[in-house]
């Protein structure tokens, strides 16, 4: 039995069984409760705005492509001063999915086939089961990766004491005299 992943605060389940020819547009605009949950999940002080615009389209025979972007305005704590630091996130979203039972997805791993990975290219396809994909959770992953792990207030430096050399301790003075260095 698979254990269910915790549901994303911005979860949006897209039915991919019968996608329209032009694709399925999905817009996720997070409300206050969802933004508070995102802030808590990502260790942010707050999320002032969050919007994902995605397009879910067919890819190859029975795969699915999700593309678009996620934009957000967030406030984090500066790693030096703990003061609030605001940031704007504007991150492209792109992912490919194949059904679990897809031959395309299995061939590369089991058939001994080569898988060519381009570091700058799209990630290799993920698998999904059933007829649905949580495109909201996918957008949240891209949002999470775009957050600066070390936010700094402009001008904040780790050496907050200034550039003066620290005062020598008595021990250091004695050591210096023993070594004969001045």
Walk me through this protein's architecture:
With 182 residues, this protein is α+β, with helices and mostly antiparallel strands. It has four helices and seven strands, in the order ββαβββαββαα. It has a five-stranded mixed β-sheet with strand order 2-3-4-5-6, covered by helices on one side. Strands 1-7 form a two-stranded antiparallel sheet. β5, α2 and β6 form a beta-alpha-beta unit. The chain is elongated, with a radius of gyration of 25 Å. The protein starts with 12 loop residues before the first strand and ends with a helix. Residues 108-112 have low confidence and may be disordered. Residues 154-182 are annotated as: Disordered.
How is the topology of this model organized?
Blueprint: E1 13-15, E2 24-29, H1 32-41, E3 46-59, E4 63-77, E5 84-99, H2 103-110, E6 126-128, E7 132-134, H3 135-146, H4 170-179
Parallel strand pairs: 5-6
Antiparallel strand pairs: 1-7, 2-3, 3-4, 4-5
Protein name: DUF177 domain-containing protein
InterPro entries: YceD (IPR003772)
Organism: Mesorhizobium album
Q: Shape from CA axes?
A: elongated
The SS-based structural class is: alpha+beta
Question: What is the helix tally?
Answer: 4
Oligomer: single chain
Q: Could you estimate the helical fraction of the residues in percent?
A: 10-25%
**Mean pLDDT value:** 84
Beta-strand fraction estimate: 25-35%
